[in-house]
Design brief:
The chain is mostly helical. It has 3 helices and no strands.
Length: 139
């Protein structure tokens, strides 16, 4: 009977040890699953952070590109305005030159008329005024 009791106790102890082994195995499996979850979560967070940074950088580059495009538009507008102003100045200068030539021609015509009035020869008037014989005779 003692052997039976010892045998029953030994079976019970063995079963208890097997149960403990299973519990420890389950416990370590849970720990390993938790570690795997932590690693997966860390990788996910890292990926999300990388994507967020990439998106922010892309947005910054887009904003910089828009600023550069705006600057270029402004520079083009300013260049166009400067060009228009230069054309206006050229036109004004051309008009002033034309007016000066007309005044000079009028002055020469007046001079030629006076010289003709005082009896100067046409050749002399032509040499002094640079007018043609037809212009002088028309006076």
């Amino acid at each position: 009977m003692i052997k039976r009791l010892q045998s029953a106790d030994s079976k019970e102890i063995e079963e208890q040890m097997n149960l403990e082994d299973e519990v420890f195995k389950d416990y370590y499996d849970l720990i390993n699953e938790n570690e795997a979850y932590k690693q997966s979560l860390t990788q996910y967070r890292t990926q999300v952070n990388k994507e967020r940074k990439a998106k922010e950088e892309a947005q910054k580059r887009e904003e910089e590109a828009q600023k550069l495009a705006q600057q270029e538009r402004q520079e083009k507008e300013q260049a166009k305005k400067r060009e228009e102003e230069a054309k206006k100045r050229e036109e004004q200068a051309r008009k002033r030159e034309e007016q000066a030539r007309q005044k000079e021609r009028q002055a020469m015509l007046k001079l030629a008329a006076k010289m003709k009035k005082y009896g100067e020869p046409i050749e002399e008037i032509m040499r002094e005024t640079g007018l043609s014989a037809e212009d002088i005779e028309a006076l």
